[in-house]
TrEMBL record:
Keywords: Cobalamin biosynthesis, Glutamine amidotransferase. Residues 253-449 form the CobB/CobQ-like glutamine amidotransferase domain. The active site is at residues 332, 443. The keyword Transcription regulation does not apply. This is Cobyric acid synthase. HAMAP family: CobQ. Catalyzes amidations at positions B, D, E, and G on adenosylcobyrinic A,C-diamide. NH(2) groups are provided by glutamine, and one molecule of ATP is hydrogenolyzed for each amidation. Belongs to the CobB/CobQ family. CobQ subfamily. Pathway: Cofactor biosynthesis; adenosylcobalamin biosynthesis.
Amino acid sequence: MAKTIMIQGTMSNAGKSLIVAGLCRIFKQDGFRVAPFKSQNMALNSYITEDGLEMGRAQVVQAEAAGVKPDASMNPILLKPTNDVGSQVIVNGISIGNMPAKEYFAYKKELVPQVQKAFKKLSDEYDIIVIEGAGSPAEINLKQDDIVNMGMAKMADSPVLLVGDIDRGGVFAQLYGTVMLLEPEERARIAGLVVNKFRGDKTILDPGLEMIEDKLHIPVAGVVPYMKVDIEDEDSLGTHLEGTERTEHTKAEIAVIRFPRISNFTDFQVFSIMPEVQLRYVEREKDLGSPDMVILPGSKNTMEDLLWMRQNGLEAAILKLEAEGIPVFGICGGFQMLGESLSDPHGVETASAAQQIRGMGLLPVRTVFEKEKTRTRVTGAFASVDGILAGMSGRSLEGYEIHMGETVRAVPPLSYVMESQSGSHLAKMDGCQRGNVYGTYIHGIFDKEGIGEAVVEGLMKMKGISGNVQGISYQDYKEKQYERLADMLRESLDMEAIYRIMGLTKNK
C-alpha cells in the first residue's frame, strides 16, 4: 500500500493544486514513484488519456510534475458545469449524463466504490499518493456523505496538511475556524498547518504562528511564499484568466473570447510564453479592440455561449474584424460556432436549449449534438493551409478531442489525423478553413514546437513585420516550472516533518 499525504484548504483557491504538484515533483526527485489523486473535481478544463478516458487537467498537471502518465484513476469523478445549477458527471473517464446539483448530491454516495477502486489501483502501483481535497472540509452543510475532503481522508486513512491563504487576509481565523468546525476524529487527522501565498518578512508572522500552534496543538509545517511560477491553473467557474502585457518585444496581439463556460483555456497557453505575443482575454465588445487574431475557444455550453456573444455585441464585432481580413480561429465549441448551424435534437447541452440556432456563418459546416461523446487522442499533420496562417501547412501536430457534436463540412479539412481510441487507429479529416477563418476539434493544436511560431510569423507578415520567431519547446518550459516550484517548496516546507507524517524517510 502506498503512503499518503492529503492537502486540504480553508477555502477554494487556497493553493492546494499547486502544492500537490510541487510535492509530486519533490517526491519524484527523491526517488519515489508518486501519483496525484483527487476523488472529485469540478472543472471545465479536461484531458483525454491514452486509453480514451476523460479527466481534469489539474491532475494531468500534477501527473506531469510526478513524471508519470495521466490516468483517469487519478480523478475518478469529474464534474463539468453546464449551467449554474447542474453539471455533466464523468465517472472513471466516461460521461454518465447531466445532473442538477441536488440530484448529484443525493447520488454521489453511490460512487464511493468507484472512488475506492480508483484509489486502490494507484495504491498498488505507487509508493506515494498525494491527495487533493476540494473547497473546504468545514462546509458543514456538505459534510454528510463527503467523498472529497475528510471523507476521502478517512477512506485513505491519510494524514492531512491544512492550507490557509494569507493573501486574502484572515489566515489565522481561516485555520482556527476550519479546525474547530471539524469533528474530533477529523481534527486528529490534521498533522500540520501551512500558510500559503505569504509576502514579506516571515519574522513578523512568527508570533502568530506560535499562537496558532498553541491554540490548536497542531504544528505549522511551513510558510509558502507567493510563488510566481507559470503552471497551468485549475479551472473552475471562478477562474480569472490573465493575459500578458504588451512590451517592446510585442509584434502580434491575440484576443481570446472568454465565454461564460470557457473550457480548455490551456489550448493557447503556448502564446503566453512567447515574448512576441500579447495574449488578451475578452468578455465585452468594447474591450475587443483591433487584435491581429481572434480565437474562439472551447465551451461546455456552445449554443448558450454563442447566444451570449450575439447578445453582447461580440459576434458582430468579430464578423467585422473577419471582413477586414483579421484571422479567426475556432477550437472545438468555437469551431462549431463558426459554422452555419448548430442543432441539439436530444437536449444534450441543456434541457432549455433551442433545438437549432444559426451559427456565425464563417465556415461551411453544420453541427448536430449527439448523445455519445467523442473522446480520443490524435496525431497527424496540417493539410495545405491557405491565407495568413499558411506557415502551418504540413506541420505535424498532436492533441485530443472531447466533444458531443458531429460536424459535416463542405470544404477540405484543416488537417489529416490518426485517431487512437480503445486500442484502434482510424485515419480521418479534422476541421476546415475558408479564407482566413480556421476551425478544429483538436485541443492542444498549438502546443507542438513550430506551430505557435508559424502562427505568429504569419501575423507578423500580415502587418509587414519581417523576422522569425525563436522556437520554444512548451514541454521543456513546463518542466523548468515544475523544478522551480519544487525548489521553492523545499525551501518553505518542513519536508522532514512531512516525511515523518507519512511514515517515510527520504531515502527509501
